[in-house]
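Open question from group meeting: does this chain pack into something compact, or does most of it stay loose? Before anyone orders reagents, we agreed to write out a predicted structure and look at it together. Recording both the input and the output here so the notebook holds the full record.
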Amino acid sequence: MRRGVDPRDSLKMKQRAKSQEAPIVISPRDVARSHARRKPTTPDGESNGAWPLHNYSVVDGGDIVGIMQRNGEMVRIPAWTVIGDHLLLGAHPADTMPPNVDAIANVDSFRFYDIPDGVLYLHFAYRDANVIPDSTDLHIAARFLNDLRAAGKTVFIHCRLGLNRSALLTGLVLIDEGYRAKDAIEMMRTLRSPYVLENTTFERYLLSETPTNAIRAAASSEPAT
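Structure tokens returned:
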């Protein structure tokens, strides 16, 4: 697992994470304040329309998220899933919050829950669409989350359903950890749901050389330890 991270990107977050007195709320600007913004990249021939998988309901007291899809069939998915050491992937925890979480990375557009005291909260608000969020922000976030994991902190990454936006960031976290993209995607689908990354734009991005090249470039620029 990567243990190095640019202190200019994460110093402010680390300082706030030391406090255990109140929830800590951090915006994407705090994460990537030293990096120039880049325009999202859109594959040729694809629109920027919203991904259509948003009609869902919570059942079983919040332990299961039910999704109405596939000709009206209810597909049942756990509210959250352990993907790796100190790494959880899941749905918006309005009813069920995973226990013993140290950091929450919310990539949904809203938050309908209270942040537990002392928990580091990051909000990125990605769009579930045929467009990739800012790649610089994505990789800074993935590297910072792995830095927390290396320090023994449990990270919970969620979007609305825990299938597309949160899987994109979780996939990058796994790639940054050392997994091949194909293996990372297969693991998320095996552990959580075969419907993970139905957004093929996100899947193609993870399978492309862009994430791996960005990680290699970042690693080559880090000081030797």
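Observations to bring back to the group:
Residues 2-55, 57-61 have pLDDT under 50 and may be disordered.
Residues 135-150 form the longest helix (16 residues).
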